[in-house]
Amino acid sequence: MQYQSDEPVTLWVNKVGPYNNPQETYNYYSLPFCQPAGNSAHKWGGLGEVLGGNELIDSQIDIKFR
């Protein structure tokens, strides 16, 4: 993918968890300090990602390509 200068870049978020226990994971937006401003877009990569619990969600963080 090629970006132009000042073009918006989508930052997808997934899940977070403690470094010392990778099996303990939480949805990114289940944390009180990571709440989205509105409805977020979801991106599913396929059945394997769904079964693995990998739900990509648009972070709605304003990032521009430089």
TrEMBL record:
Subcellular location, record wording: Endosome membrane; Golgi apparatus membrane
Its Gene Ontology cellular component terms are:
endosome membrane; Golgi membrane
Q: Could you tell me the superkingdom of the organism this chain comes from?
A: Eukaryota
Per the record, membrane topology reads: Multi-pass membrane protein
Keyword terms, alphabetized: Endosome, Membrane, Signal, Transmembrane, Transmembrane helix
Main localisation, per the record? membrane
GO BP annotations, alphabetical order: protein localization to membrane
- Recorded family membership: Belongs to the nonaspanin (TM9SF) (TC 9.A.2) family.
**Protein's name according to its UniProt entry:** Transmembrane 9 superfamily member
Species assigned in the record: Nymphaea colorata (pocket water lily)
